[in-house]
Write a structure and sequence with these properties.
Radius of gyration: 14 Å
Largest sheet: 4 strands, antiparallel
Number of helices: 3
Shape: globular
Strand content: 15-25%
Length: 98
């Protein structure tokens, strides 16, 4: 079977300042905290913060989306400390019919 999204080398991608790695269930608490930040809420397309159940679903399904080739949902980490710094989701809007 041909996979649209290949695995990242060593499971990560880094430039030495930030590191990207696939989002996973262990990122739930950090992602929930991020989406409670007023600046994140103000810039989001949603009308309010994500609820804990939605954050859990996002984190739990991220790996399946990667394997299906529909989305690459990545955690952004500070390389020096390893601390969660954010998230990024990459997907092909043309494939979704947008």
């Amino acid at each position: 079977m041909h996979r649209v999204l290949p695995d990242l080398t060593a499971g990560r991608l880094t430039d030495g300042t930030v590191t990207l790695r696939p989002l996973g269930p262990a990122d739930g608490e950090a992602l929930y905290g991020l989406h409670r930040d007023p600046d994140v809420i103000a810039a989001a397309y949603r009308t309010g913060p994500l609820e804990p159940a939605e954050v859990s679903r996002i984190c739990a399904r991220a790996g399946a989306h990667w394997l299906a080739g529909t989305r690459a949902h990545l955690a952004v980490l500070d390389t020096a400390s390893g601390a969660f710094a954010g998230e990024i989701g990459l997907f092909d809007v043309a494939a979704a019919g947008a």
